[in-house]
């Protein structure tokens, strides 16, 4: 009869093979708050687990917000480029204008098209502005969570009355302070940019915010293209 090997373990529990303790098998009664016997790793407390959940949520939100930001910027510049094509068609139509009434109708069409294009492009830039503010807030939040490694119990509380105007209003309460710190007024920034452009054009390209420079450049090129088209209609 074969004798069992005295050096071979008969237990189903995992055996440690080095200086590190053996990990518990699946289904162990150990909870995340209890350290593995002999382990050098500290136990995860509730604050650390909340921070991990918030970090995952913030990372997923940032990925989606970056994609949304890029989509809105692409739509804004696509609308600007499409408007140039429309203005070119209006310029071609001016060749068939034979009287004052025809030229007046083409001028009115150019003006209406400009305002329609402006509203579309402005809407896309406004959404891009919000997405940029939210992305900045999420980056601050991720950095804070990585630095502190914990979050208080009230950090997962959601707003009682979320608004449909902004996806950020359903973010946990932990995000509120950073979101407020990164939120800026777009209209005020645009007004400051326009004032700076009029008073000191040289400093506009140096001191104005990049988002403001790109928006004003789009609006100016659309306005100039419209003016040129109207002048050609009446040439």
Defining key terms:
mainly alpha, 235 residues
What do the pLDDT scores average to?
Answer: 79
The coarse overall form would be elongated
Strand content: under 5%
Look at the helices and sheets and give the structural class: mainly alpha
How many strand elements? 0
Order of helices and strands: HHHHHH
Describe the structure.
Helix content is 63%, strand content 0%. It is built from six helices and no strands. It has helices at 46-93, 100-148, 176-182, 186-199, 201-207, 210-233.
Give a concise summary.
This protein is mainly alpha-helical and about 240 residues long. It is built from 6 helices and no strands. Helix 1 (about 45-95) packs antiparallel against helix 2, helix 4 (about 185-200) packs antiparallel against helix 5 and helix 4 (about 185-200) crosses helix 6.
Write the layout of secondary structure elements.
Elements: H1 46-93, H2 100-148, H3 176-182, H4 186-199, H5 201-207, H6 210-233
Helix pairs in contact: 1-2, 1-6, 2-3, 2-6, 4-5, 4-6
